[in-house]
Structure formats: C-alpha cells, structure tokens
C-alpha cells in the first residue's frame, strides 16, 4: 500500500471517528442538559415541600384582600427562620372561609382600615380558634382604625370573651426574648392585646404598626410605633408562644 | 557483632612490673660485674646480659598486667528507662493534699530529670499499670492515674525489650503495690542476664489511705402506698486495718427516718445495706442515705451521701417530658390534648435555636436547667418521655443511655415522633435505634414527591382499648376518617416482638408489605413506641375532626406508656456482698391486689437471671402469692450487671431488679506503699530502693548512688582483654634462657 492509499485509509477512518465523537458529544450535551433541568425541577420540588412546621397564612377577611404591606408575611417567615430552628414554609394567602384555614395553625392578618367580619367568618374563626388555631394581627402604619376594628370584631367571636390587654407578666413577653416592657416611640409603654378563650390566649394584636416595624424598619410609622428591634423580638415571641401553647 | 569505637591499653599492676624489672636489672648488672671480674670479654658479657634482660623484661610486662580496653558505640545510645506507675493507687493522697502521682511528677521535675541531665544520661518514659507503653514526657504529666491493676514485672520486661540497646538502668517511680505477678519470673530472669540495675523510688505512705465510699442508692422508681419496698446503699471500703462498726442514716425529705448499724469491716469489700420502707401517704419522697463515719484516724470518706427519689402513689398523676428538636405544632396540640386530663402534667423542652432550649411547666426553678438530663435519676420524676423531631445526633451518648435506662430499668414509657427528616440513616448504630421497635429505611424517598396518605390502624390496634376513642360501633369509622397526612418516616421493618399499630395507605416497605407508621414494643421494664408521621396535629385542627377524639387518644396512649413499668411483684435483696463468687440471695413476693386476684386467680411465673449480654443464668418456675415469698439465690461467676426478673407465660417481664456485681477495687485493696517489693527487685539486680521522702530529703546522695550504679553497669559491660599471655612470648623467654644457658656452658661459666 502506497503512502497515498495509507493517507486515504487513515482519513476515512478518522472522519468516521470524528463523526462518532460529534454524535457522542451531542448526546452528552443532551444528557447534561436533561440532568441540569431535572436538578432544577428537583430543587424546586424540594424547596416547595421542605418539611415545614411553621405554616403562616396571610388572612383575607371582610373586605380586606389580606395583602396590605405586601412583604410583611414573607418577612415574618424570614425573621422566624433566621433566629430559630423552626422549619418554615412559604406564606399562603387564605380567606377565613377557606378549608385550608384548618390546615394552618397560625395565621397573620394586618390592615390599615376599619373592617367588619361576616357571621360566616365569625363562625369559622370560632371553630378554628376552638380547635387550637392562632391569629396574630397587626395594624399597619400605626393607623388606629384597624386595631379598633379588630378589638370590636374579635370580641364578637366568643360570647363573653372580650379582647383585653396582655399584662407584662404573661409568658408571651419572655417566650423567646425576655422583654420587660413594650414601648412605642410616641406613646411610651404599650401592651399587646389578646383574646383569651377557656384560659388560652388564642389571638393577639399589636396596635402600633408592629408589622411595619419588623418588616420595613418602621419607615411608614413616621417616628411612631414600636421600634424595629423591639418589634422583631416581640414578633418572634408571639410566634414561639403560639407554637408552644 | 560489636560496634567497636576505640581500644586503649591499660596496665592493671604497673608497679609489679617496675619493681620486678628494677630488681632484674640490678641482678643482671651484678652478675655482669662478677663476670667481668672473672675476666670474660665485654662482648660476651653484653650478649649474656641481653639474653637475661629480654625474658626479665617480658616477665615484667606480664606482671604489670597489660589489658586492652574496648568501649562500644552502643553505650552512647543506651538510655535510662523511667517507669512511671499510672495505676489507680497512685491517685491516693495518703491524707495529704496531693496524690502520689502528683508527688511523683514533682519529684521528676525537681530531682530526677536534673540529675540525669547533669550526668549526661538520656532517658525514656514508660507508663505502666497492667500494661506498659512508651510515651513522651508530656504525656506523663497529662495522665490521670486510673489503671485498674499494677504489673511491675511486665513493666520491667517491656522496658528491657523496648529498645535495641539494653537500658543503662530502670528507675521505677511507683508505690510498689503490685497486684499482678504473672510476669515477675520472666522479668527476674531478664534483669539477671542483662545485669541492669533496678532503682525503685516508692511514693505514698506505708500504711496507705483508708477510704469509705457510698457509691449509690437503689430504690424503686414507683411504689404503691401501704406496701413495703427496699432502699439499698452500695458501699465500698478500701482498708488496710479493720474498721469499727458505723451508722447509716436514712433521711426522708431531709428528716430522720431510720438508722442501722453496719458491723465492723475487716477487709476491703463492696457490699449493699438495705432499709425496709413502707409509706402510707402518696407523694414524691426523696430518700438520702448518709454514712456516719467511724472514729478512725486518716479514714477518707469519698462520698458520704447519696439519694433516690420514690414516687408513692396509685398512678393518679403522671408527668410527661416532651423534648422536641425543633419547634413543631405537635407539641402544642398534644399539650392541649393532655392538658384536658388534670392528672397529666406535661413539661416541655424545646430547642428554639442551636444553643437555646425553652423550658415549660417545670415543677421547681432549677429543674432541667441544662436541657435534657444526662443522668437517669433526673428523669425519675417523669413517667413518659416524648422525643419529637429529634435525631440521635442532638443527644449525647450519656443522654441516650439515660433514656434507655429510664425505659429498661425504671419502667418508663418512651414515644418517638417524627417524619422523614427525623427518622433517617443517622439513627443507625445509635443507642436510641437499639431501643426502637422498628428499623428505618436508608432510602427516605425524594422530597416533594410524597402523595397524601391515610393513617390505617391495624386489627391489633383496633382491638386495643388504647385506640377506643368513641363507642365501639363508631370507633373504626372515626379512625378511617382521619385527615390525610403528607410526611412520614420510612420504616423498613418491625423488629421481632414489636406490635404494629398503624400502616400507610399507599406506600409499601422493602418487604412489599404496607409501610408501618406506628409500632411499639417492650424494652426492659418499660415500653417504647414510634409514630412516624409528621404533623399528626392536623387531626385536631381539621374542620371535620372532633377535638375530643384526638385528646382522648393521646390521654389514653400516654397513660398506657406510663403504666408499662408498673410492677406488682417485688424483688428484695437479702445478702449483702455483691462480689463474684459470693452467694447472692433474694426474695420475690407479690403485692396484694384484690382486683387482680379476682379476675385472674392463678398465673404461671418464671424467675430468670440474665447477665448483661442477655444470657440466661437461671430460669425456674415459681408460684407467687401475696401471702408467701419465694426465696432464691445465685452465685455470679464474674463482675457484671445481672438482671433478676419475673416473667409471665408470654415472657413479659413483670418485675425486675438490676444487680451490679463487681470486684472490690484491686488497686485499693492494699492501699499502702510496698517498699519491700521494690527492695526485692533492687536486690536481685544490684540496684537500690528509695522511699521518695528520703530522696527528696537528700537528693545528692540519691544522685551519687544512681550514678555509681549506672557507671558500674557500663564498666561491667566494657570488659578489658588481657594481652601478652601467648605462646610466642613464652617461647621467646624460654629460647632466651636456653641460649643464655648454652652460651654459659660453652664458655664454661657454669
């Protein structure tokens, strides 16, 4: 075999080899791409259903859409996750009338304005709180309309049980951080308020822009309301108390 | 093959050679003068004198005893071996502030090491008790003397064999109190053949330390009112002289309850003293046993007080300890359920962050202040321990042991709750896994792919009163209507003897059968259950669920776990000695229970004794009544933890008692220093034995003595080789003398 024939034979073999390599490379890239996509899917699945024990529902009630100060719910979850071993899940928007309320042992509600609960909503909340559910509420931007409405409406849930101030010797002030007092920038000492039923604290409200303080560093409170650091501590205390009582 | 460094010629008796030579020269000169007078020519006189002088010179040389000295390179590499005794007896303080070991370290620093360094000796450390090991000096300083035996013979043999070159000397720093002698013969032989001096420095006092120690108090965890029970004190005495009688005081809640006289103790021993108690009023009692020491000089009371808690009641109230690894809603909802039962008290310990634990409903201010207890006695106040969302990695080995003993020995109930994130491969090999009624799967599945499932009770559970949460007709339907759950721990299989309570509605385990979600088994005297469902609280909150059902189930289930350890049979110890080879007798008696007698007039019982490996040592059928006790006995062959128990037909343990049998501490049986032993070792090896206080008083004498002994070892090895005594020399002498005689004959001088 002459040199030319040898070269031709070599080239033909080489071209076949190159073709195989190219096909294999394409296959390899395809496999890698599929694997990456699977990973993305798996990661998504994992984050979505990671074992959660702290379910937070943003409550939609009356005429309120449940989305005042939109990031407040997510910020509360982050706050709880950062300082404790509580496994949190993403927030979900809930109506009081949703069936999902009975899968959510802790719900958060906030707002700026006055509101009124329907009889159906009152009935649902009565059942929910009776079974062990917990409601945490906060007025937005120190607007007094929401806390006033909350006091009025929540006092209607259980006949005879009215919303009342929670004294400083209550465990909720030291369930995680020990807080001797709760202060407001403009009012001095303030207290949490709550609804007690059969001796259990089942719902809590803070009138002085607590959610704005722990979520937005009190930027909308205009020098009023609970200071941000104190707000974060009392919020965490409320969450831990709800989980342990 | 010796490694020759250099050789030198020395004269052992130079004066003899010189004197002889001087005398010989004088005589030869005198003889030459006489020959000259006889008229012999000068040349002939010189020749004869040379022939006489040559042998005289050679003989003079021999008389001066010339020796060729050879020194070896290995001598430069030889070291002094220091044997430091780290056995428990070196921890004794002999009535002073410092232990023998501490004094030994101080002696080493201040006297021994400077002496050896000053003389240019290298040294090496060996630590010994029953075994011997080569260590750095720093390790000696950091060692705690806690070896359970002492073997000086083994230490000597090891020291002689540990290096390529035999040591220059062995310096043993010890109290000489050896209790192992098997290696002594070999060590003696090695010392004699190698001619290595043994230099012993003895620490401690010759009388030693006398100790009395109250090791612990055993009492039943729970006792019914108006029934007799036993409180036992385990005591250890290590003495070299007999102890006179002394008192044991029993206090109940800090006040005097009883007193008993312990007869004199003649030698070191480990034994138990029992108090018989009956309480009529329900409550939690703290019993303290206090030793009132006998008036003996230098007696050290290591521990004179120990306590035990006994709950005397009819099970009308029970405490539950709920420990959760992460905050979960289960704690809240179970707590709510149990709070509706006024006889149940739930105490919570919740890990709220990596380093903080939230305590809830503790009975006294300091209770559980440091989190989950390390000691089982701190769990004694509880009847049930619930571990929720807690991996074994979150508990120390001591805490896991405490839980195991709480269940097995104290008859406590344990419940473990968790889902996939809790029950995983991290349990494998842990103490908690050994207790569990199930084994977990290594494959915990893919997160997010679980489908909602139903919690299905097994027929065994449905037939059990614990799961009756409503009228019988409705009960099955209620359980079927539980809400769907979505997270569960993967149980691979149920261990033999465990009971399965609930199954998964969709998933199957590795054996192809429905996945187990809830199971329980007996563990020692208690019961342990596992619930592998996360967020079981959903049942209480669900809209259609009835809160009373959830609450009733948990109240009944917790009460069942709490009552698992209730014992209606008493095992009382009768003899005192708890050592191997001693006959241990005990008495088994049934506690009167009219209700049970009416329902079950007769049951078959077996009395069993098991060792710590679970091997049956004794197994016999017994007939138990409340009016007559059964006596039995056994002789433990070895030190071990023995379980004396009574079982029924189904091999279920009805009562048990753990007996800790052990040897009295060998190290402390002869607590005094044994200088005689050191002297014997020194004598056979040409060494010396020194009481430490003597060395400390006169370190110079010690230094000089050991220097002399070490140098003697060197010189005895470096033997000189006599030179000159060989046939050529003798031939030269004889030939010279013969030639001289022949010449004299020829010249007719004779």
Keywords:
heterodimer, A: 7-stranded mixed β-sheet, two-stranded antiparallel sheet, 6 helices, 9 strands, 43% helix, 16% strand, B: 750 residues, alpha/beta, disordered N terminus
* Contiguous runs where pLDDT drops below 50 for at least 5 residues of chain A: 15-53
Report the portion of residues of chain B in β strands: 25-35%
Largest sheet of chain B: 9 strands, mixed
Assembly state here? Answer: heterodimer
Radius of gyration of chain B: 42 Å
Structural class of chain B: alpha/beta
Rg of chain A is: 28 Å
- Show unreliable segments of chain B: 1-5
Structure description:
The complex is a heterodimer of chains A (245) and B (750). Chain A is α/β, with parallel strands linked by helices and 245 residues long. Helix content of chain A is 43%, strand content 16%. In chain A, the strands form two sheets. In chain A, strands 2-1-3-4-9-8-5 form a seven-stranded mixed beta sheet. In chain A, strand 8 and strand 9 form a beta hairpin. About 16% of the residues of chain A have low confidence. In chain B, 30% of the residues lie in helices and 31% in strands. In chain B, the strands form eight sheets. A nine-stranded mixed beta sheet of chain B has the order 19-18-17-20-21-27-26-25-23, with helices on both faces. Chain B has a six-stranded mixed beta sheet with strand order 5-4-3-6-7-35, sandwiched between helices. In chain B, strands 9-16-14-11-12 form a five-stranded mixed beta sheet, with no helix packed on it.
Please specify the SSE layout and strand pairing.
The complex is a heterodimer of chains A (245) and B (750).
Chain A lengths: L2 H47 L7 E4 L11 H12 L8 E4 L10 E6 L7 H13 L2 E6 L5 H10 L9 E2 L16 E3 L3 E3 L2 E5 L2 E7 L3 H7 L11 H17 L1
Parallel strand pairs in A: 1-2, 1-3, 3-4, 4-9
Antiparallel strand pairs in A: 5-8, 6-7, 8-9
Helix pairs in contact in A: 2-5, 5-6
Chain B lengths: L3 E8 L2 H24 L4 H22 L2 E7 L1 H4 L1 E7 L14 H19 L3 E7 L3 E4 L1 H5 L10 H10 L7 E6 L9 H11 L3 E5 L7 E9 L3 E2 L4 E11 L7 E7 L2 E8 L6 E10 L4 E10 L6 E5 L1 E8 L5 E7 L4 H11 L4 E10 L2 E5 L23 E5 L8 H12 L4 E5 L13 H5 L2 E3 L14 E3 L1 H4 L9 H9 L10 E4 L4 E10 L5 E10 L2 E6 L6 H4 L5 H17 L5 E5 L10 E7 L3 H6 L5 E6 L5 E7 L7 E5 L5 E8 L5 E9 L4 H4 L5 H11 L2 E4 H6 L1 H19 L2 E3 L4 H20 L4
Helix pairs in contact in B: 1-2, 2-20, 6-7, 8-14
């Amino acid at each position: 075999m002459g040199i030319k024939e040898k070269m031709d034979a070599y080239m033909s073999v080489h071209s076949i080899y190159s073709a195989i390599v190219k096909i294999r490379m394409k296959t390899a890239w395809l496999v890698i791409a599929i694997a990456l996509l699977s990973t993305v899917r798996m990661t998504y699945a994992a984050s979505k259903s990671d074992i959660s024990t702290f379910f937070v529902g943003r409550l939609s009630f009356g005429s309120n859409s449940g989305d005042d100060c939109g990031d407040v719910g997510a910020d509360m979850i982050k706050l709880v996750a950062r300082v404790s071993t509580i496994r949190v899940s993403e927030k979900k928007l809930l109506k009081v009338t949703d069936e999902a309320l009975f899968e959510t042992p802790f719900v958060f509600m906030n707002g700026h304005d006055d509101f009124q609960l329907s009889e159906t909503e009152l009935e649902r909340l009565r059942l929910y709180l009776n079974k062990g559910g917990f409601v945490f509420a906060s007025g937005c931007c120190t607007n007094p309309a929401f806390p006033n409405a909350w006091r009025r409406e929540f006092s209607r849930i259980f006949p005879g049980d009215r919303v009342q101030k929670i004294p400083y010797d209550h465990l909720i002030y030291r369930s995680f951080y020990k807080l001797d007092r709760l202060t407001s920038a403009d009012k001095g000492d303030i207290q949490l308020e709550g609804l007690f039923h059969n001796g259990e604290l089942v719902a809590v409200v803070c009138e002085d822009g607590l959610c704005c303080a722990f979520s937005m560093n009190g930027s909308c409170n205009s020098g009023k309301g609970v200071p941000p650091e104190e707000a974060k501590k009392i919020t965490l205390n409320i969450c831990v108390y709800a989980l342990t009582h | 093959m010796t490694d020759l460094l250099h050789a030198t010629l020395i004269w052992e008796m130079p004066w003899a050679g010189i004197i002889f030579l001087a005398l010989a020269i004088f005589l030869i000169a005198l003889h030459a003068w006489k020959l000259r007078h006889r008229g012999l020519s000068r040349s002939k006189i010189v020749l004869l004198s040379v022939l006489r002088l040559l042998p005289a010179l050679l003989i003079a040389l021999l008389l001066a005893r010339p020796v060729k000295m050879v020194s070896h390179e290995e001598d430069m590499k030889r070291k002094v071996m220091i044997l430091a005794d780290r056995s428990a007896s070196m921890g004794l303080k002999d009535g002073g502030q410092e232990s023998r070991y501490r004094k030994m370290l101080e002696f080493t620093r201040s006297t021994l090491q400077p002496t050896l360094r000053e003389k240019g000796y290298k040294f090496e450390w060996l630590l010994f008790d029953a075994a011997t090991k080569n260590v750095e000096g720093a390790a000696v300083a950091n060692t705690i003397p806690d070896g359970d035996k002492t073997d000086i013979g083994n230490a000597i043999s090891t020291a002689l064999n540990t290096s390529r070159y035999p040591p220059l000397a062995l310096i043993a720093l010890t109290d000489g109190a050896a209790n192992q002698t098997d290696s002594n013969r070999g060590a003696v032989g090695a010392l004699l053949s190698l001619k290595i001096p043994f230099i012993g420095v003895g620490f401690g006092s010759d009388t030693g330390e006398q100790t009395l120690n109250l090791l612990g108090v055993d009492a039943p965890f729970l006792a019914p009112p108006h029934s007799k029970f036993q409180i036992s004190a385990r005591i250890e005495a290590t003495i070299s002289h007999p102890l006179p009688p002394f008192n044991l005081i029993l206090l109940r809640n800090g006040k005097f309850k009883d007193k008993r006289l312990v007869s004199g103790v003649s030698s070191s021993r480990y034994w138990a003293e029992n108090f018989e108690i009956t309480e009529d009023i329900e409550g939690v009692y703290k019993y303290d046993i206090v030793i009132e020491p006998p008036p003996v000089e230098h007696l050290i009371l290591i521990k004179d007080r120990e306590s035990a808690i006994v709950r005397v009641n009819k099970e009308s109230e029970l405490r539950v300890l709920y420990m959760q690894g992460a905050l979960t809603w289960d704690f809240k909802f179970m707590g709510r359920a149990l709070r509706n039962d006024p006889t149940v008290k739930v105490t919570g310990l919740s890990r709220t962050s990596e380093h903080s634990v939230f305590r809830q409903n503790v009975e006294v201010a300091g209770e559980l202040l440091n989190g989950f207890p390390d000691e089982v006695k701190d769990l004694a106040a509880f009847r049930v321990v619930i571990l929720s969302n807690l991996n074994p990695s979150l508990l120390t080995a001591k805490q896991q042991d405490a839980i195991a003993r709480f269940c097995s020995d104290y008859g406590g109930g344990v419940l473990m709750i968790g889902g996939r994130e809790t029950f995983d491969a991290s349990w494998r090999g842990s103490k908690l896994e050994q207790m569990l009624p199930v084994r977990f799967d290594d494959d915990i599945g893919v997160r997010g792919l679980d489908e909602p499932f139903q919690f299905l009770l097994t027929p065994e559970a449905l037939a059990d009163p614990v799961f009756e949460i409503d009228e019988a007709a409705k009960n099955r339907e209620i359980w079927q209507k539980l809400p769907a759950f979505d997270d569960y721990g993967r149980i691979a299989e149920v261990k033999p003897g465990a009971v399965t309570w609930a199954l998964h509605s969709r998933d199957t385990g590795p054996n192809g059968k429905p996945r187990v979600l809830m199971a329980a088994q007996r563990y020692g005297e208690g019961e342990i259950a596992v619930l592998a469902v996360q967020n079981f609280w959903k049942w209480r909150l669900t809209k259609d669920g009835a809160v009373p059902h959830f609450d009733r189930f948990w109240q009944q289930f917790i009460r069942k776990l709490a009552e698992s350890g209730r014992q209606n049979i008493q095992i009382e110890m009768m003899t005192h000695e708890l050592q191997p080879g001693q006959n241990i007798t005990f008495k088994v008696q049934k506690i009167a229970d009219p209700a049970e007698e009416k329902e079950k007039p007769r049951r078959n019982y077996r009395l069993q004794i098991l060792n710590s490996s679970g091997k049956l040592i004794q197994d016999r059928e017994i007939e138990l009544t409340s009016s007559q006790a059964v006596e039995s006995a056994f002789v433990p062959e070895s030190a071990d933890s023995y379980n004396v128990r009574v079982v029924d037909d189904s091999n279920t343990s009805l009562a048990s008692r753990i007996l800790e049998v052990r040897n009295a501490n060998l190290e402390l049986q002869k607590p005094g220093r044994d200088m005689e032993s050191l002297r014997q070792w020194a004598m056979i090896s040409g060494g010396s034995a020194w009481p430490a206080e003597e060395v400390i008083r006169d370190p110079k004498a010690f230094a000089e003595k050991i220097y002399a002994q070490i140098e003697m070892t060197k010189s005895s090895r470096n033997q000189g080789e006599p030179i000159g005594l060989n046939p050529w020399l003798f031939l030269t002498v004889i030939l010279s003398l013969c030639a001289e005689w022949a010449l004299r004959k020829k010249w007719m001088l004779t």
